[in-house]
Amino acid sequence: xxxxxxxxxxxxxxxxxxxxxxxxxxxxxxxxxxxxxxxxxxxxxxxxxxxxxxxxxxxxxxxxxxxxxxxxxxxxxxxxxxxxxxxxxxxxxxxxxxxxxxxxxxxxxxxxxxxxxxxxxxxxxxxxxxxxxxxxxxxxxxxxxxxxxxxxxxxxxxxxxxxxxxxxxxxxxxxxxxxxxxxxxxxxxxxxxxxxxxxxxxxxxxxxxxxxxxxxxxxxxxxxxxxxxxxxxxxxxxxxxxxxxxxxxxxxxxxxxxxxxxxxxxxxxxxxxxxxxxxxxxxxxxxxxxx
Length: 291
Known about the structure:
Blueprint: H1 5-20, H2 42-49, H3 53-60, H4 68-77, H5 82-92, H6 109-117, E1 123-126, E2 132-135, H7 137-142, H8 156-162, H9 164-169, H10 173-190, H11 195-207, H12 209-217, E3 225-232, E4 236-247, E5 250-259, H13 265-279
Antiparallel strand pairs: 1-2, 1-5, 3-4, 4-5
Helix pairs in contact: 2-3, 2-4, 4-5, 8-10, 11-12
Domain HTH cro/C1-type: 34-85
Pfam family, one: HTH_31
Organism: Knoellia sinensis KCTC 19936
């Protein structure tokens, strides 16, 4: 009887991955003399995964199916990245119970260039849990100087609830904040085990009774489009349409832009604010678009 093609591919995949790792990579002794195989031996992989050599050999040869826990141990032993781990579990027809590790998000260079080119349009890049990853000068002038907010606290929802200036900047702060909480709830559905999101929700629930009430209501909303009215301390009322442009290659990064109708009072006010921002650009901190 021929073996399952997926089992054969799984074995070939494991063999290719162990060939890429040296004993030094795996913190194993090099041993004495020339090695007969590139990378790690089967017994070394088995040792790292805490299984017997015979068991590992049968998995690699496609003679038995490994359980999900053993696959997880092999993925760790072979230092697989998240894509490789998903591929391994897919070949085995198993579901990983491990929550994927989330690396520190950095704004994509293409989004940064696009955002910085929007000199007359306020724009920010939002990441997971509505973290503010980057912003252009006009967004900083219109909303707040994000560069003055510590990176670990640079979250749109957190700023809305903890910065007193936000409550006067937005004409209808309560509506804006309630919508933001619903959008954050939608983010939570994507990564329910995200420890940073859990910590954020816990902090804001203690800090602000309104946040706790709205979070408990479990309303949800997508980050898409809408209209907001701001009362800016320098240029007065701004009636702005906001739109979200999703990055097809990375759904966890979204460009949010605010625009105004041509020839409107808001359009002229943005032009004035942009000219003031340009005049001060030589003194602006270079960190304005750092994550």
